[in-house]
Design a protein that fits this description.
With 515 residues, the chain is an alpha/beta fold. Helix content is 29%, strand content 26%. Strand 14 and strand 15 form a beta hairpin.
């Protein structure tokens, strides 16, 4: 019997380096690197880590924005058999230290301009000696310089055997529900999502994928990996701006991109939008938060028909609403990704029939291994089917229609129970967002003496808006069922607190109203 090779994303680079060596692999600003050049740099990182004492399964923390060097470190760690742990730049230094300690990382790479986040917490990381702290594009006595760190290493691929079940990386949750949890993802899961997403997003070797999100979000990985798998060109934006996005799409003739709803909103509102040429875009993926229907329609009208909505969890289940379905099933988030099964269950764990609303659960070969150091949290999300397969509870409420399309109603913890009736904040938000003077809205549950809970609408009006609170309340309530109507509207000038993917942190919004 033939010895079957294991799947791992590092091998994708080796293949491209061998058979399309001179073709452009990655672009960031004015920097461009070919597959051959990039593969050699990845091997230098891998060999240096191994020579510095990295053992298979050791964790390597990375605090960086998008750059070619960040990708070298990611793939170099994987090639060496390490587990890469991208750290969110949105965390405070003390939380960064907590996450690094929780991960058990023995190496730390920090890239400019994020050194100010790392420096205050270095003393609290005695497990990472100075020689294992590496500075990318800055100088500091507390670190080794990146180029000096890898300078003497060989450019040949090290002999490290990776297995499907070996850990590939850990993505820390965005913390919408509290302290981030480490989501452990295997090589099999990462390799399969690379291949499955390439099919779902229609990425091929002629594609140019524009990445607008940082490497510590799972959204970045689910566009980066299929682009690498297909041998496409990957263009990185170190930081996002509407102007930078529009200019880069035109310059690089980007065919694919992935963004969160707030990014699409900013682009559509940009003064230079109408003069920009976006005709090269074939697929525009929206991810990370529900795409409000008014915004979805504006994207289709103004940016073209190639909108693809992705609903999914870093933990490893998801759906896509493809461009050919989006006009007919506009309010849906599509059907499950290949080899994924999804169901709807009630509070007792019983499966519900088509059309009924309950918690969404899912099974997939790309699911996470576990929550790191949290067997309790891992156990909480498990549901077993009649075949004994492990499904994960998403915490989202939804329903399937008769054609197999999924509709998201709300986060389970965000659902408002008023007078014993379930009220979905998303329905109320949809009504407010139809008002031409409403820029954004978040609906939360607040205490009510009679009904237990009642919805409160926090509204961000557009600049120059003249509608009063009563006007807005009347507008929305005319469009809502009786049990959904709001009694109170509050106007907000500042943006709502959000996670790395633009999802509103309703937990923080609710805190002042609940003792």
């Amino acid at each position: 019997m033939l010895d079957q090779p294991s799947l791992n994303v590092s091998d994708l680079l080796s293949t491209h380096a061998k058979f399309r060596c001179a073709r452009t692999a990655f672009v960031c600003g004015e920097s461009r690197v070919s597959w051959g050049e990039f593969d050699k740099r990845v091997s230098k990182v891998a060999n240096t880590l191994l020579e510095s004492g990295l053992k298979k399964g050791d964790k390597v923390a990375l605090l960086a924005l998008s750059s070619i060097e960040a990708l070298e470190i990611i793939f170099g760690t994987i090639r060496a058999g390490g587990v890469i742990v991208p750290i969110s730049a949105l965390l405070q230094p003390d939380m960064i230290a907590t996450v690094i300690e929780d991960s058990g990382s023995s190496f730390l790479f920090v890239a400019s301009p994020l050194q100010a986040l790392a420096t205050p917490m270095l003393d609290s990381l005695p497990s990472i000696p100075k020689q294992h702290r590496i500075a990318v594009h800055f100088e500091d006595d507390g670190y080794q310089a990146y180029e000096a760190f890898i300078a003497a290493a060989a450019e040949t691929e090290p002999s490290v055997i990776l297995r499907n079940e070996d850990e590939c990386n850990i993505i820390y949750s965005s913390g919408t529900t509290g302290v981030p949890k480490g989501i452990v993802i295997t090589h099999q899961a990462r390799s399969l999502i690379a291949l499955a997403a390439a099919v779902e997003y229609r990425v091929d070797s002629s594609s140019t994928a524009l990445i607008t999100t940082p490497p510590f979000t799972n959204a970045t990985w689910v566009i980066l990996l299929p682009s690498v798998a297909a041998g496409a060109v990957t263009v990185l934006l170190p930081s996002f701006s509407a102007e930078g996005f529009l200019a880069t799409v035109q310059k690089e003739r980007a065919t694919h991109t992935l963004m969160v709803p707030t990014q699409y909103h900013v682009i559509l509102e940009s003064p230079g939008f109408e003069q920009s040429d976006l005709s090269s875009l074939r697929i525009m993926i929206s991810v990370g938060a529900m795409l409000p229907l008014p915004l979805k329609r504006r994207i289709l009208e103004k940016m073209g028909p190639g909108l693809l909505e992705l609903y999914g969890l870093t933990e490893g289940v998801g759906t896509t609403l493809k461009p050919e379905d989006i006009q007919v099933k506009t309010g849906s988030v599509g059907t499950p990704i290949g080899a994924t099964d999804m169901r709807i269950i009630d509070d007792e764990g019983n499966e519900l029939p088509v059309g009924e609303v309950g918690e969404i659960i899912g099974y997939s070969p790309i699911m996470m291994k576990e929550y790191l150091n949290r067997p309790d949290a891992t156990a909480e999300i498990i549901w077993k089917d009649e075949r004994g397969r492990t499904y994960i509870r998403t915490g989202d409420m939804g329903r399937f229609d008769e054609d197999g399309f999924l509709y998201i109603m709300d986060r389970k913890r965000d659902m408002i129970v008023s007078g014993g009736l379930n009220v979905f904040a998303s329905d109320i938000e949809e009504a407010f967002l139809q008002h031409p003077e409403v820029l954004d809205v978040a609906v939360i549950a607040v205490p009510h003496e009679k009904w237990g809970e009642t919805p409160l609408a926090l509204v961000r009006p557009r600049v120059g808006a003249t509608a009063t609170i009563d006007d807005l309340k009347e507008w929305a309530n005319r469009r809502l069922a009786k049990h959904q109507r709001v009694n109170t509207v509050e106007l907000r000038e500042e943006d709502f607190p959000r996670n790395a993917l633009g999802k509103v942190l309703k937990r923080e919004l609710r805190q002042p109203y609940w003792p």
